[in-house]
Design brief:
Homodimer. By secondary structure, this protein is an alpha/beta fold. The chain has 2 domains: about 180 residues, 3-Layer(aba) Sandwich (Rossmann fold), CATH 3.40.50.1100; about 100 residues, Rossmann fold. The longest helix has 18 residues. About 40% of the residues lie in helices and about 15% in strands.
Length: about 325
Amino acid sequence: MPVISAPHEINMEDLYVDLRAVVDVPLYLKCESFNFAGSVKLKAAREMVLAAEREGLLAPGSVLVESSSGNLGIALSVIAASRGYGFLCVTDSRCNPASRRQMQALGAQVLTISRPDKTRGLLGARLDYVRRLCAHDPRYVWLNQYENRHNWLAHYRSTAPAIAEQFPELDVVFIGAGTTGTLMGCARWFREHRPSVTVVAVDSVGSVTFGGPPSRRLIPGLGAGVRPVLLDREAIDDVVMVEEPETIETCRAMARRGFLFGGSTGTVVSGARRWLAERPGGGSLVSVAIAPDQGDRYLDSVYDPEWVAEHYGEPVGEQLPDPRTDSASQLVGAG
């Protein structure tokens, strides 16, 4: 029976979902959400905070500050509450309301930036605010997930070796690109220890990470308006770009099978499905994708038909019958 005294002491590493019945290609999904932060970001948060403590950057009275669209903010809220620090999350309008409420429930403060930088978007505006705050008040300590080597080291030390242990015959791994911490940690580990494994990055259309033009993105988690400093393009074999309506369709397809995953997972699975379907012999490859979180934080967006219709112009995916119509009434009556 596991007994813990701090929330970061437990994280399930060996749970996978076989998605063949959902996506019609062989794909195992590594679930990274079974911890007290509910996402893969707990690994990076823990690694960065412990490193800052070792380096003497954190002391009693310190206040952590970080720019986050949600998941890292929640993870740092968990760690900060456990270790006695204050925490301020600087986010923007793409952060889910549920994520904001969860951070606040854990004692964090949440500041929402609403005016984007003219050339660097909302992320650029968030980063500028954090820099000004830290320059003005020395109590604030910025871990800077966008440049902190411990972000990717967390996955080099844990996520990639865990996948390799479970899948000794692994052919290809699919990883979403946000700050690229998870991506680069896994890519570097496989380059050094299992170079035969193909590493495929999956990103959202509208992200500038791999050189595409910036455009509107509404689903948080993946993508960036500023090219990630951590990214080493040479460590990655291929890149797949996914449109947000495709992300929503994939999330709902998984939900119809009882698996409620988040928007980032929908994007990664969409990209993996397309990459495998387009490759000769893709059906015989041993493939793993990483699921960063579950779908409970996306009930007001990805899984809300009204939100989808408002932002994408029309419903996405299979729709339920309208109870106001005669045919729907007959269907209900027949049951």
